[in-house]
C-alpha cells in the first residue's frame, strides 16, 4: 500500500510540474488539463491514506525527484502516460501481496487505472493525428 500511496503522491507532484511546464510553453488548455489530473491523483492518495489510517497501517512513502524537461505537447503527454503506467505497476504490486480485504479496497483503483493508461494512449494518438488542433479538443 505504501508503494501505491507513493506513486499517487508522486503522480500528483508530477502532474503539477507538467501543468507548470505546459503553462510556461503557452499550452494553456494542456496546463488546465494537467492541473485537473493532479487533483485527481491527490484524491486517490487521500483515499489510500484514509484507508491506511482506518486499518491502522503505517504510512510511509518515498517521493521521487520529478525533474521533467520537455517543451512539446507530445513530450508532455508521453511523460503523463509514463506516470500513469507507473501507478498501474504499483497497483499490481500492491494487489499481489495484499490481504483479501486490501484487494477488495484496491479493486476500485484497478479499473480506474486501466482507463487512465488507455486515456493517455488515446490522447497521444489524437495529438499525432491532429497536431496543433489537438489542444482545442481537450476538455
What would you say this structure looks like, in words?
It comes from Hexamita inflata. Residues 1-131 form the Ferritin-like diiron domain. The protein has 139 residues and is an all-alpha fold. The chain has a single domain (2-137), classed as Ferritin, CATH 1.20.1260. Helices cover 76% and strands 0% of the residues. It contains four helices and no strands. Helix 1 packs antiparallel against helix 2 and helix 1 runs antiparallel to helix 3 (73-97). The longest helix is centred in the last third of the chain and has 31 residues, at 100-130. The radius of gyration is 16 Å and the shape is elongated. 30% of the residues are buried.
How are the secondary structure elements laid out?
Layout: H1 2-24, H2 28-54, H3 73-97, H4 100-130
Helix pairs in contact: 1-2, 1-3, 3-4
GO molecular function, one term: ferric iron binding
Protein name: Ferritin
Pfam families: Ferritin
Q: Work out the radius of gyration.
A: 16 Å
| Low-confidence region ranges | none
* Series of H and E elements: HHHH
The tally of domains stands at 1
Query: Which fold does the CATH topology refer to?
Result: Ferritin
For the terminal residues, how far apart are their CA atoms? 32 Å
On the 0 to 100 scale, the average pLDDT is: 84
Tell me about the largest β-sheet: none
According to DSSP, the number of beta strands is 0
CATH class category: Mainly Alpha
The CATH architecture? Up-down Bundle
The level of helicity is over 70%
What class do helices, strands and sheet pairing give? mainly alpha
Provide the β-strand percentage band. under 5%
Principal-axes geometry comes out as elongated
- Helix segment count? 4
